[in-house]
């Protein structure tokens, strides 16, 4: 028996206000505001002026478990995801051991089920050990209980063109997709930041835009040739947007993601030498930021994905050159999208639902459960946002186990008030709600 | 001036102030007793994460001539792979009561992090960080150029003794070689521009950084044309590191011989310069690669003098950082 929730006066997709009643894991009733009755034991959530979205789906999350539980665990990372409004995440494969076998992906999937904050969909490695030499057992991962559909060597690029071609072809058998981390390795040896005016001045080895664009250009042509679908991870340059736009114009089955940080931060921040701003792909120029915003607005870029990359303090509290690449993002993603795209008038809330839920769910093939319309009978995977709230980001106060946010001290708009996973509140009044059904599930096993 | 991190932070007046102070320091160095009591009781730490015997000895000499207590702390290697972190090292130096920390580091930005992270409150003096900055090298180069080219009787000079009080307005400096990896070039371009000099960087295209077009200087791929046509007053040869030409397909130029053919300073190229022009090199030199023995040993070369001037400039920098003023210097 789950709790019934009455969301009083919520605005589904930012539209007209309504009462939305969640019961038995589904959207039970949608009525005029104030009209829904309150059954015994139901919890009423004051949702006046709050926007109701389908639960957010992240196609690109690093949960670090197994291997780097000092930076994040499946439990801590998914708790952070729920706090950020997510109901599903795709856990990247660059763990230790690498998620390149059915055994590892199944372990991550089970850890996600036990934690219960969001649905964890493991991403399988394309190549054994992310080594770029030979295909991992993609079919076994697809057939495992984790039902892997997204394959990526993220963190590394599948740079060998024949291997990439084979991967693109092979995953067609189970409707999979290869999510490419586009980084030409020889052009980025030792690279520390975007190559340009700032890197020249501050003396950090440059990471040219062409190292990303050349791989994307090659991959869209390969995808066209073999008739496969391709997903481009964390696209970051104006040139990449142009290539994807061109590819879509040709009818190539390509989707692309941008991270929240590439929507707002630039390489000027590297002048501080603060490793909080060290990330792969690197922060680019203001012109690139404008290009990815425009690409997201016109649909060239399909989704926003966090590339949530937690790191321990010791991996960030050091010289730039010695620091790890990456920044946390689950708990700031929606706010950054609101600030850069909604408050600026470039996306509606319905568009936000598309880029942060519906489309990522479809790309990841989890759209039977996630990214659904807000309609009676649909799974109650939902996120309630107060867009008028403002908050100051404090890395240490976040639910993620790591504090490496680039937004520390920033005031961001919007606050996730509640998150529901199949009708159960994982976040209520802006705070994660510890699961109470664990004992029951344990007893059932 | 709390720290000396980058020549980009120096105003024209500040830079001239350092050079003038260095001139005063240099004057004391011809006395029989070279040691000054100025920094007695102050502690200067030479924190070197990268080997550089020359730079360390220069700073050590400078600090000792000012009567500071000097501690040499060698912490070679990456902080992550080998032992103590930069932060812990900084906290240790803070606990020991260092007044100034002279830091040489393989990582660009490490001195800036030490200055701004709140780990210690000592004055930070950047003695070379990665491929970013080497401010005292640029200051000693400017000092050397000023002595020769802006002093009384100098072709473009006319200021006081040794050029004291003067900037480098109108002086032309060619900086030749591996600009991409050179903290010396970055430090010099900023400082020379601030002091009014004109700079041309001469380098193969592979060794100029993308983005160099925004720097306050010209660039050229042609050393002969620059020497003959632009007639620099000073030619600064940069050290070429031998690993830049290995690396197979990633090498920056085809061979040492080809580099020398196009970018080496030899007697023939020296003859293209005006009689007053000087030849500089931050050392250590690769004789026969970027500079021939004839050029290095010619009358035009001020390379050994640069070393001596380095001590005076570093004395000035330590003095200004630790006394916090240019007023009332009594030496």
What do these coordinates show?
The complex is a heterodimer of chains A (445) and B (331). By secondary structure, chain A is an alpha/beta fold. Chain A has 11 helices and 19 strands. Chain A folds into 2 domains: 5-52 and 377-443, Urease, subunit C, domain 1; 55-363, Alpha-Beta Barrel (TIM Barrel), CATH 3.20.20. Chain A starts with a strand and ends with a helix. In chain A, 59% of the residues are buried. Chain B has 331 residues and is of the alpha/beta class. A 5-stranded parallel beta sheet of chain B has the order 7-6-5-8-9, with helices on both faces. A 4-stranded parallel beta sheet of chain B has the order 2-1-3-4, with helices on both faces. In chain B, helix 1 packs across helix 5 (135-149), helix 1 (12-28) packs across helix 11 (303-323) and helix 2 crosses helix 11 (303-323). The longest helix of chain B has 21 residues, at 303-323. Chain B starts with 11 loop residues before the first helix and ends in an 8-residue tail after the last helix. In chain B, 52% of the residues are buried. Chain A binds chain B through residues 186, 189, 195-206, 208, 272-274, 314-315, 317-322, and chain B through 78-80, 85-87, 105-110, 112-113, 116, 129-133, 183, 186, 209-212, 214-215, 249-250.
């Amino acid at each position: 028996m789950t709790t019934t929730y009455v969301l009083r006066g919520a605005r589904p997709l930012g539209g007209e206000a309504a009462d939305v009643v969640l019961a038995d894991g589904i959207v039970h009733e949608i009525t005029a505001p104030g009209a829904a009755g309150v059954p015994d034991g139901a919890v009423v959530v004051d949702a006046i002026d709050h926007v109701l979205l389908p639960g957010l789906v992240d196609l690109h999350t690093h949960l670090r478990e197994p291997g780097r539980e000092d930076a994040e665990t499946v439990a801590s990372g998914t708790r952070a995801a729920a706090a950020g409004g997510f109901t599903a995440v795709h856990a990247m494969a660059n763990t230790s051991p690498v998620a390149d076998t059915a055994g590892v992906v199944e372990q991550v999937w089970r850890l996600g089920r036990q934690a219960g904050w969001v649905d964890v969909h493991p991403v399988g490695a394309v190549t054994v050990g992310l080594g770029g030499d030979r295909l991992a057992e993609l079919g076994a991962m697809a057939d495992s209980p984790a039902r892997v559909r997204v394959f990526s060597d993220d963190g590394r690029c599948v740079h060998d063109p024949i291997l990439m071609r084979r991967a693109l072809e092979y995953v067609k058998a189970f409707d999979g997709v290869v999510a490419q981390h586009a980084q030409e390795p020889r052009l980025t040896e030792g690279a520390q930041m975007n190559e340009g005016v700032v890197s020249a001045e501050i003396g950090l080895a440059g990471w040219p835009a062409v190292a990303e664009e050349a791989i994307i250009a090659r991959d869209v042509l390969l995808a066209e040739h073999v008739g496969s679908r391709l997903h481009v991870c964390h696209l970051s340059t104006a040139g990449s947007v142009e290539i994807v736009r061109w590819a879509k114009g040709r009818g190539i089955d390509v989707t692309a993601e941008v991270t929240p940080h590439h929507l707002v931060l630039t390489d000027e921040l590297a002048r501080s030498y603060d490793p909080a701003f060290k990330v792969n792909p690197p922060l680019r120029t203001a012109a690139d930021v404008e290009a990815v915003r425009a690409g997201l607005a016109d649909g060239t870029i399909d989704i926003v994905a966090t590339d949530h990359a937690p790191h321990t303090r010791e991996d960030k509290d050091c010289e730039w050159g010695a620091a790890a690449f990456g920044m946390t993002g689950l708990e700031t993603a929606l706010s950054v999208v609101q600030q850069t795209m909604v408050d600026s008038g470039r996306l509606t809330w319905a568009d936000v639902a598309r880029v942060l839920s519906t489309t990522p769910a479809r790309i990841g093939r989890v759209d039977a459960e996630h990214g659904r319309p807000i309609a009676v009978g649909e799974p109650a995977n939902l996120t309630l946002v107060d867009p008028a709230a403002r908050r100051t980001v404090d890395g240490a106060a976040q639910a993620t186990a790591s504090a490496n946010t680039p937004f520390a001290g920033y005031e961001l708009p919007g606050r996730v008030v509640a998150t529901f996973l199949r009708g159960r509140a994982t976040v209520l009044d802006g705070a994660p709600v510890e699961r109470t059904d664990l004992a029951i599930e344990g007893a059932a096993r | 001036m709390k720290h000396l991190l980058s020549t980009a932070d120096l105003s024209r007046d500040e830079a001239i102030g350092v050079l003038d102070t260095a001139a005063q320091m240099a004057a004391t160095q011809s006395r029989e007793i070279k040691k000054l009591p100025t920094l007695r009781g102050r502690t200067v730490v030479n924190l070197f994460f990268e080997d550089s015997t020359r730079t360390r000895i220069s700073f050590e000499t400078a600090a000792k001539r000012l009567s500071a207590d000097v501690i040499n702390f060698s912490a070679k290697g990456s902080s992550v792979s080998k032992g103590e972190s930069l932060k812990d090292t900084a906290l240790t130096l803070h606990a020991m009561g260092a007044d100034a920390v002279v830091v040489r580091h393989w990582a660009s930005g490490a001195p800036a992090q030490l200055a701004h992270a709140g780990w210690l409150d000592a004055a930070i003096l950047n003695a070379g960080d990665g491929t970013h900055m080497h401010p005292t090298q640029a200051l000693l180069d400017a000092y050397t150029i000023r002595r020769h080219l802006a002093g009384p009787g100098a072709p473009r000079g006319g200021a006081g003794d040794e050029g004291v009080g003067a900037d480098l307005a109108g002086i032309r400096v060619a900086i030749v070689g591996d600009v991409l990896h050179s903290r010396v070039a970055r430090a010099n371009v900023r400082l020379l521009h601030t002091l009014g000099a004109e700079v041309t960087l001469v380098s193969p295209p592979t060794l100029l950084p993308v983005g160099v077009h925004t720097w306050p200087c010209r660039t050229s791929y042609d050393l002969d044309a620059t020497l003959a046509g632009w007639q620099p007053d000073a030619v600064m040869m940069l050290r070429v590191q031998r690993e830049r030409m290995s690396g197979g397909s990633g090498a920056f130029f085809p061979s040492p011989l080809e580099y020398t053919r196009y970018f080496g300073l030899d007697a023939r190229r020296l003859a293209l310069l005006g009689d007053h022009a000087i030849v500089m090199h931050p050392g250590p030199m690769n004789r026969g690669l970027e500079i021939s023995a004839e050029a290095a040993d010619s009358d035009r070369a001020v390379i050994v003098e640069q070393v001596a001037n380095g001590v005076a400039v570093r004395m000035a920098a330590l003095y200004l950082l630790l006394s916090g003023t240019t007023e009332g210097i009594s030496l």
